[in-house]
Amino acid sequence: MSSPGEARTESRAPVVSHDTPVVFVVDDDVSVRESLELLILSAGWQPETFSSAEDFLARSRVDGPSCLVLDVTLPNLNGLDLQKRIVDRADMPIIFITGYGDVPTTVQAMKAGAVEFLTKPFGYDVLQNAIGQAIERSRTALTHQAELRGLRDCHASLTPRERETMALVVSGLLNKQIAAKLGISEITVKAHRGRVMRKMQVDSLAELVRVATALDVPLVAHP
User: Fold this and answer.
1) Which segments within the chain are labelled E, that is strand?
2) Angle between the 160-170 and 205-214 helix axes, to the nearest 10 degrees?
3) Torsion sign, CA atoms 198, 203, 209, 211
4) Helix/strand/coil for 132
5) What is the DSSP string of 162-201?
6) pLDDT digit of tens for each residue in the chain (223 aa)?
7) What's the CATH number of domain 157-214, 1.10.10.10, 3.40.50.1240, 3.40.50.2300, 3.40.50.970?
8) Strand order, beta sheet including 116-119
């Protein structure tokens, strides 16, 4: 990968829309950082470059779609170590780049969730395509996270008895079985069940089961 013809100052905050996907680059080679910055800008994304894993970790998380282009070999904290530190950031897919690729390193990175592993030199079109796919994965993850937060808010609005009822309903118990288990009438069970459906914003038992599965609602064993 060739560097630009003249020296450039690293840019941490290009003037772009807040909704523009952010592409983080962590590489200790300044020429690589500068080249990737130009590539990312030309594709319409927002680049943020870092020379070390420590500098990147000091950066606060972003709200919108993003991905990380990460060099395997870095001073102090290497790329694989950084990957372990940010394992909770499912909304920020990682694309590894390296000057030398070996099978064990590639396997380790991919098993830990990396979406791509590219060996230098690689074509700009290859990296650009990988970044585009990573950003789409990021958008999908963010949408899923937002939906899950909404479901959790709905579940939090249930009363303790409504949560009990929901758990029993999605476990497959009939109204009369729920009534016997909770020591209440079937009419009361139906009322609780109706409020659960309304608060969870679902129209069918199948939808309620899907929501309960997403929320990891524990099932109740029954004969």
Assistant:
1) 22-26, 46-50, 66-71, 94-98, 116-119
2) 110
3) negative
4) helix
5) HHHHHHHHHTT--HHHHHHHHTS-HHHHHHHHHHHHHHTT
6) 544 333 333 434 434 445 799 999 999 999 999 999 999 999 999 999 999 999 999 998 898 999 999 998 888 898 889 999 998 888 999 999 987 766 677 777 777 778 888 888 888 899 999 999 999 999 999 999 999 999 999 999 999 999 999 999 999 999 999 999 999 999 999 999 999 999 999 999 999 999 999 999 998 877 6
7) 1.10.10.10
8) 46-50, 22-26, 66-71, 94-98, 116-119
For the chain, which residues make up each domain, given as ranges? Answer: 22-149, 157-214
Alpha-carbon distance of 22 to 184, in angstroms, equals: 54
Q: Do 170 and 200 meet the contact criterion of CB atoms below 8 Å apart? A: no
